Amino acid sequence: MQHFIDLILPIPIQKTFTYSVTEDEANFLKKGMRVAVSFGKTKMYTGLVFNIHQMAPTLYDAKEIHQILDEEPLVNEQQLQHWSWISDYYMCSLGEVYRASLPSAFLLESETIIIKSDVPIDESILLDDEFLVYEALQHQSQLTLHQVAAILGKKKVMPIVNTLIQKSAISIQEEIYEQYKPKLVKYVRLHPDYSSDASLEKLLETLSKAKKQREAVLGFFQLLSSKKPIKAKDLEVKAAVSSSVLKSLVDKNIFEFYEIQIDRISFVGDTNDLKQLNEFQQVALQEIKDSFQKKDVTLLHGITSSGKTEVYTKLIQEVLDTGKQVLFLLPEIALTTQIITRLQVYFGDQISVFHSKYSINERVEVWKNVLENKSKARIILGARSSIFLPFSNLGLIVVDEEHETSYKQFEPSPRYNARDAAIVLAKIHKSKILLGSATPSLETSFNAAQNKYGLVPLNRRHGNVQLPKIELIDIKEKQRKKEMKGHFSDRMLLLIQEALEAKEQVILFQNRRGYSPVVECKTCGVSPECPNCDVTLTFHKFKHELRCHYCNYQRAMPNSCGACGSNTLDTKGFGTEQIEMELKTLFPDYTIGRMDLDTTRGKHGYQKIIGAFEAREIDVLVGTQMLSKGLDFENVSLVGILNADSMLNFPDFRAHERAYQMMVQVSGRAGRSKKQGNVAIQTFNPNHQILQQVSTTSYLAMYKEQLQERWQYKYPPYFRLIKITLKHRDYNKVDSGIDWLAKALQQSFGEFVLGPSAPAVSRIRNQYIKNLVIKIPPKQSLANTKNQILKIRNTFEAVKDYRPIRFIIDVDAY
């Protein structure tokens, strides 16, 4: 009887692929194990076992597998169930979910190795490039394709390799390589020959002339009293000797080296008692527990600085006591640095962290610890990708700041929303999920109002500190009266001055990085644009360069206009870098810091800035929206928003809701510990209804008004949205493709198809972009709609002219 396995391959193809296995292999294999298989002509991939059966494929002959890579499954049944849901709901392939889920070190891929053939050939038949490769192989036994590319200085080397194969000069083979390397620490022990006292005395006598070696041995005995294994590094420090001294002692069979594998990251901390909750937090905690009796999903609507994290810790402790795992989702990596410090105090080494700033090896270790349900991975703190970890015993998921847009993945596929996917994950594990926010998203509030989720309010700030005083500053009026100094009104400068004199800290928010978003010639009005995208280049003064924030293209700042040659270049608009420079001239005696994508690039970039601000080494911190996400600084008394209008005038149906959330969240950073803080918002339109709602922090007024508009214009939470995007380098192809698609979709969905339209930035990385949006009414079947869209997509891709166009489907594209 033949045996077969269905494999998920990490490629964007809808189906699984069937391979044949022997009976022994079929008995050994389990769902979720990895096997190496060849796919296509030469490429090797890591496939994941999805099914084991005895049904041969009908359309092709099943190939044999290359090798089995695991002893035990790397992915469990619950994960595969979750992946299937993500694949169905977000209309992507299982392969794309597989690729997004596993740390890339697990996805072993093959590399083409080039070997010199044994047959001698006439070198005169080789062309110049071919001879270079052939000659290199005389000195090296084998070359990789990357090395060949480096030798020739070309990217496209396969044609040259193919001609060399035809001339019998070389042969090629595929080799799989492992990326993960465990971290080994070198330890030292005494050779067994020296176990008796007599032999030790003799040893010290023989080393009487080798002073350094004798010191190393004496240092070893001093360290031995601690009864712990002795690291080679510690011994070098203790005895003040070099590594070569230890090596010579090993060569003399006096010492032995041995290695122990350790995790790259572990969080040390005591397991202190949790903080006592105040009466309001106690009530909220009890209400959450009661809500969990009836509902699996509960929303904790707690105003900024109401102490939601303390409530979370109590819940986490109760779940840990039952021996289960906890997933704590955060929207921003910057936030993890602060929350780790807080949770470490209570939970010590039970915490693991998982996000993209960690190296591949560190992520592999976290994955393995979660899979094996180790004690050091009982609490997982992470950004959106941590929902893919192999939990087997999940008891609680906390989604902090659940309204955040960072939970939505836009590129590449799968385009999932981590909050929604976490709700499904909790359902699969039969666990509870708590959504926490001061400004919940409209969809979540709507679900709570419809009694789909439980709702628990927490309306008092910790320590009964009042919410900050919010004042709107009319900069149109200030400009008319000439009361502006740079980008600061006189009122804003006065508030900053007062806060700094009182030895308090200030946060200033400007949602654009760089120095200036537009550089314009005063003579002819032309602005330098990115050659790859339809955007003007942003000026970064520190490096004196122009940079595109979409494709990272950069060039030096020109001295004269490229169009007319005039040297009257002027900068318009302002970003965080310009604000930082203005503040340095306005307040020379104080330290100004900046937190945006440019200053937090390194692995510990966030930690350094947040740490310096907490230690009060920075007086004024200027930053982008990173600052708005749940950070807690107790000495901040003033928050300034420098230009509120840029957030409001955005072509998106959620612009007003997002602007409200952003401003209230940033405002919530002020006055968190002892006294009431201040918030100053500069705007050209102080009478705008959203700004009025922010100034009174009336979430309910904003919620009702936005909900009314959503119903009127048929948007979520009432209607579902699916967005289709076409991308290609040829504008005409995209244009005719989107017209064809719009007509086909209108025949099925009629008036509920919006578009086609071009986005605000209609060309990125030389790809032209056109969009269509399909609205799905409340009673219409989502599954049938998706099936119809897939049918239309298949027809679209069958048209020869449209096949090269990239077709992107984004479900819940907001």
Helix content estimate: 25-40%
Instruction: Flag low-confidence runs.
Output: none
Number of domains: 6
Terminal Cα span = 51 Å
In the CATH classification, which architecture of the largest domain applies? 3-Layer(aba) Sandwich
Short description:
This protein is 35% helix and 23% strand. It is α/β, with parallel strands linked by helices and 814 residues long.
Describe what this molecule looks like in 3D:
This protein has 814 residues and is of the alpha/beta class. It has six domains: 3-106, GIY-YIG endonuclease (3-Layer(aba) Sandwich); 110-176; 192-253, no CATH class; 279-463, P-loop containing nucleotide triphosphate hydrolases (Rossmann fold); 469-515 and 574-709, Rossmann fold (3-Layer(aba) Sandwich); 720-811, Ribosomal protein S10 (Alpha-Beta Plaits), CATH 3.30.70.600. Helix 2 (77-89) crosses helix 3 and helix 25 (731-749) packs antiparallel against helix 26. The chain is globular.
